[in-house]
Design goal:
4 domains, Immunoglobulin-like, elongated, 6-stranded mixed sheet
Length: 594
């Protein structure tokens, strides 16, 4: 059962399509109808040609005046229909059905709250600014619906009244074809305004409603689900049967003035911007604009009713694209009144998160509907966003990639990354296991390290934005002996050499048919690094043999390059197997100088 996200209890007006028309209103509509009477002649032409064929043949046989007689016959047939339609338009009470159907769909396309009114007899009337604004909008939308669709209404009425049997069959087939368009629109999620043609002679007694769902039944009939503005606040249905000589319809809300339904077509409709009703009058504020995971994001807004009479009852909601929303109680906002909402949102995922203000309605037909509140002015934003950032990353400040700073008794500088935090930041450093020398409120901090090897010390920092948003981070480091730091430094340098060309082969092993050319200078660089490693390793071994201590931190961030412990030297450079660097099987050759 395909249905769009539309419900008459929310998206339709609460007042009945019952209005007082003045003589000028009738004259306006009658003028539009009169201007479109050419549709009658166009629609009737093929029918007249078939029905009056024998008469035309006899008239054409009359000498001299045959064509004139045919023209007079056609004129008489057309005039009979035209006069019947025009004379049926009399002063009386008519609805604004096309205007109400169009206006309802206008609000739906905007996803705005509809100014439904306070009940069935609460039609907006001229006399107050808000009543006048909505009444005039509905009236102008009626005029547009008539101008855009009167040719179809008059053409179908002419076909039906010219010959009831063949005309009824023609409208049945036309309606069946129109259902293809209707189904496609609803399957795509968009309701459809439709025109209903009955047996009336008065085009103002025909009707326009809005279809938001359908069901094709096993017996070949089709049931349509509608907002019928003559019966507000309920779901209207019509079951269409195409198996007979003409269209037959079982309607939950039939119309005696219109007469039995004989045709239905999708009206020409173009969305328009309706009057504001329930709005964001004090724009949504979001503070801070950037913060960390799980930190509170304060939101606040005020909604006001600037539309016609009291708003429908709804719940104000400020929601992010994830996590729990901030909600208020379900209530109506009196005309001219306001309601505020504030609270905290939290987010667990990094990135840019959208935040929006919506009005949520109770479930109808199994659907919980939400509608947006537009800003009252350009300054009153109804939505926004917050950026959730990761924990702060703390790094040692070094002069080279392989410099080791966490040496016992030394002084080290550390910095925190803030590229995603904006400008105007404040910093607050903390340390345990060491002493801050300077920069406690700066981006870089200087620390006096402990005099003992193997001691853990932890740096922490909180970064605060001008809007109050904060992000923090911490890292734990471990002090190294001088010998261990020297050994780590050499290992890092060898690692740097072996990760640069020509030692790194794209795609892995070069294969038997490829050759890597290594210059003598490159071999000399590697040899010097290996010699340094040997010297450092020998010194470390001598220290251990004499009862000394060698400490290499297992903490991943103990050095800039995250070198592992000395037992894994083979994984970095496999220095003990240096011969493999120039093994013949790899196809490496050296070049002679010059």
């Amino acid at each position: 059962m395909p249905r769009t996200i539309y419900r008459p209890e929310v998206d339709g007006f609460a007042f009945v399509n019952n209005w007082t028309w003045e003589a000028t209103d009738i004259a306006t509509i009658k003028g539009i109808v009169t201007d479109a009477l050419g549709a009658v002649e166009i629609a009737l032409a093929p029918f007249i040609a078939v029905v009056e064929a024998p008469v035309f043949a006899a008239e054409l046989a009359v000498p001299f005046i045959g064509p004139w007689l045919v023209a007079k016959t056609i004129e008489a047939e057309n005039n009979a229909i035209i006069n019947g339609i025009v004379n049926a338009i009399t002063v009386g009470s008519y609805g604004l059905c096309g205007g109400m159907a169009f206006s309802s769909l206008d609000y739906w396309h905007k996803s705005w709250v509809v100014p439904r009114g306070n009940g069935p007899n609460d039609q907006p009337q001229d006399g107050t600014p808000l009543g006048t604004a909505l009444r005039e909008y509905i009236w102008n939308r009626l005029l547009q619906s008539v101008k855009d669709n009167i040719w179809t209404f008059l053409g179908w009425m002419a076909i039906l009244h010219f010959d009831g049997a063949s005309g009824g069959a023609s409208l049945r087939d036309k309606t069946k074809a129109q259902l293809v368009t209707l189904r496609n629109s609803i399957n795509g999620g968009t309701p459809v305004t439709v025109g209903l043609v009955g047996t009336t002679w008065n085009p103002l007694d025909n009707h326009q409603i809005l279809i938001y769902g359908f069901e094709d039944n096993p017996d070949g009939t089709t049931t349509l689900f509608a907002y019928d503005n003559n019966f507000p606040g309920v779901e209207s249905t019509m079951k269409l049967n195409f198996s007979g000589a003409m269209l037959e319809a079982v309607e939950s809300n039939a119309s005696a003035e219109r007469g039995p339904l004989r045709g239905l077509f999708c009206t020409t409709y173009t969305p328009s911007t309706p009057p504001l009703a329930d709005v964001v009058s004090q724009g949504l504020t979001i503070s801070p604009a950037v913060t960390g995971v799980g930190k509170p994001v304060k939101v606040a807004m005020t909604a006001s009713n600037v539309g016609f009479h009291d708003s429908p009852s709804f719940q104000l909601v400020v929601a992010g694209d994830s996590g729990a929303a901030v909600t208020g109680p379900a209530a109506s906002i009196p005309v001219g009144g306001s309601r505020s909402l504030s609270g905290d949102l939290t987010f667990t995922a990094l990135g840019n998160h959208k935040i929006a203000t919506v009005a949520t309605f109770p479930p109808f037909g199994g659907m919980t509907l939400s509608r947006f509140l537009p800003p009252q002015t350009s300054a009153d934003t109804a939505g926004g966003s917050v950026v959730i950032v990761d924990e702060r990353e703390i790094n040692a400040v070094t002069d080279s990639a392989c410099e080791v700073v966490n040496v016992v008794g030394g002084k080290a500088w550390y910095t925190v990354g803030v590229a995603d935090m904006g400008t105007g930041l404040k910093f607050q450093w903390m340390v345990t296991g060491a002493t801050i020398l300077s920069g406690v409120t700066e981006q870089q901090v200087q620390v006096q390290l402990p005099a003992q090897a193997g001691v853990n010390y932890t740096l922490g920092v909180t970064v605060t934005r001008p809007d109050g948003g904060t992000s923090s981070g911490s890292e734990t480091f471990q002090t190294l002996t001088v010998l261990a730091a020297g050994l780590a430094h050499v290992i890092c340098e060898i690692g740097q050499i072996l990760t640069q060309p020509p030692f790194q082969i794209p795609g892995g092993d070069p294969g038997p048919d490829q050759r890597i050319v290594v210059n003598p200078e490159e071999i000399a660089t590697l040899a010097a690094a290996a010699q340094n490693l040997t010297t450092a390793a020998n010194a470390a071994a001598a220290s251990l043999a004499s009862g000394g201590q060698l400490v290499l931190s297992a903490t991943p961030r103990s050095t800039v390059t995250n070198v592992g412990n000395v037992a894994n030297v083979a994984n970095v450079a496999n220095v003990a197997n240096v011969a493999n660097v120039a093994r013949p099987a790899a196809g490496i050759r050296t070049t002679e100088p010059g």
